[in-house]
Structure formats: structure tokens, C-alpha cells
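Reopening this one. Same input as before:
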Amino acid sequence: MMKTMMKTRNLLFVLIAVSLVIAGCNQAKDLANVTFDAEFKADLNCEVPPASFKSGIDGAFAASKTINPLADSTVEKYIDKIKSWEITGVTGEILSVSKEGVNLLGAELEVFSANHSTAWHIPATALFVGQKITFDNGNGQWDTIDAILGEKDVFTVSVNGSTDQDDVTFVIRLIIKTRVTVNPL
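Same output, byte for byte:
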């Protein structure tokens, strides 16, 4: 009887020790997590064609660009070890405008992949070089971009809208800032 109790007690100690070792290994693996920041940029070249004599000012424009997350060398290095993406900011900046006094009447900015899409409305505003536009997470847009990046594949950003003038070109740079968590083990 005493031998059986000793064997049971020893077996219990072994099971507890194994459980602690396994839990400790998982915690040690999490300690190896590495985070780094990655930015994805796209310059959207918007062109409003000259108006024809018959139709007057149309002001419509559209532009799109494909972004490949693997173009970032650190992302490419750890692509198979990525645990999570966290969007830390989405901004736009007007890099150039071919005329002064151009007003944006409104636009839609979209980020999409084969499986996910999200968009923001850009309200009417004057366009000028250096102008910054912040795109928030008001409708879960950042969460959708997290899912898009989780696919680890190319995605597209596009903008379409209208201005109050024709025969104008301008460039909007979209910047998606992320924090990437990887585990190199």
C-alpha cells in the first residue's frame, strides 16, 4: 500500500514537472517575439482631363496602385514567422498640385484585396501641397487592413472623386503604418 502511494506521488510529481516545463517553454517562446515597424506607401497620380467644349467641367479622376508587403525587406525576411499586424496609422499627403485654387468636391479612398475591402470618404476641401489627411478607424477600416495584411499578399489602394476644375493633376501619397510582431523561433 505504501509502495502504491509512493508510486502515485512520484507520478504526480512527474506530471506536474512536465506541465511546468511545457508551460515554461511556451512562455519562453513568447519572450522571443520581436516587433518592428513597417510602412507601406503608394503615390496615387490623379489626373483630371481637360474639359471638352461641349460638356463643360467634369472634374472626375481615379487612380490606383498595388502594394506588395514583401517589398519591405524586413517583412520579406520574417513573412513566415509573422504572428500579427497592428495598424498604427493611415495618412495621406498631397505631394503636388498642377494648379492653384483647386478644390476637391469629394472622393472615396479604398484599400482592397481579393477577399477584403474597406473605404473612407474624403469630404470637400481645398487641395494644396503638404496637406495632410488622417484616415481613422471609425468604421473598423484598420481592422480590415490588418486582415488584408494577414493574407501576406499584394493589395490595391485606389481613389476616385471630382474637383471643381479640369485639366489638373495632383499626387496623393497614402501611408499605412504598421507594427509587426514576429517570432523567429
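So the earlier flakiness isn't reproducible anymore. For the record, The first helix runs from residue 2 to 31.
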